[in-house]
Amino acid sequence: MTSLPAPHEPGRYRVAFICSGNICRSPSADVVLAFLLDEAGLSDRVSVVSGGMGDWHVGDPMDSRSAGALSARGYDPAHHRAQQVQSGWFGRDDVLFAMDESHRSDLARLGSVDRIRLFGDFDPETPGVEVPDPYYGGRDGFEEVLDMIERTCRALVPHIERALSPS
User: Helix, strand or coil for residue 116?
Assistant: First the structure.
C-alpha cells in the first residue's frame, strides 16, 4: 500500500518513523524528512518524530556513525534523543513508518494497521525493500542506509502534500 492514511486533523500531518532502538535508521529518517519538509515550506503543517520498539536506548543520542553520516551531508542530528514508541502514537500520528517487516509486525500488535506503512514501500528504486540495520556493520552500511533514506524521504514529500490537501 503506497498511499498515506488521511490526517487525524485536516491541514496537519504527523509522521513517525520506527526502528529497533531509535538510534540509527528511524532518527536518520526523522532528520532527513524534517529537513526536506522545511525546504518544501511544509514544516509548519507537518511534524516528524521517531521511536524504537525497544527501550534499551531511551534518552541516548543517535549512534555516532549515523550522526556522522548525516552531518557529513549537511544535516543536524544533534537534538535527537531515543524514545520508545507507545500505543498512544496511533491516535496522535497519522502514519507510522516501519523500517522493516519485524517492526511492522510489532507495531501491528500495538495499534491500528491502517496507520502503519513499510517505509521501503515508498522507495522509488526498490519498492518494498526493508531498510537494513547498520548497527553491527561498518561505516559503509550507514552510508547505504542514508542513501535509501534520502531517496525515499524525497519520494514521500509529494505523498504528504497530497495527504494535506482535501480531496
Answer: strand
